[in-house]
Amino acid sequence: MYHGLIEDKFADECGVFGIFVNNHAEEIEIARTTFYGLYALQHRGQESAGIAVSNGEEIVLHKAMGLVSEVFSNEHIDSLKGHIAIGHVRYSAAGAAAVVNAQPLVFHYLNGMIGLAQNGSLVNSEALRQRLGTYGSVFQTKSDAEIVANLLARYSQDKLEDALAKCMIDLEGAFALVIMTENCLIGVRDQLGIRPLVLGELKGNYVLASETAAFDTIGATLIRDVEPGEIIVVDKNGLRSTQTANFNKSAHCVFEYIYFARPDSKIDGINVYKARRELGKQLAKEYKIDADLVISVPDSGTAAALGYAEEAGLPFEEGLMKNRYIGRTFIQPTQQMRELGVRLKLNTIPELVQGKRIVMVDDSIVRGTTSKKLVQMLREAGAAEIHMLIASPPTKYSCFYGINTSKKEELIANKMEVEDIAEFIGADSLHYISMEGMVTALERNEDFFCAACFSGHYPVAVDI
Ligand code: SF4
Question: Which of 131, 134, 408, 461 to pair with 345, CA 20 to 30 A apart?
Answer without folding.
Answer: 408
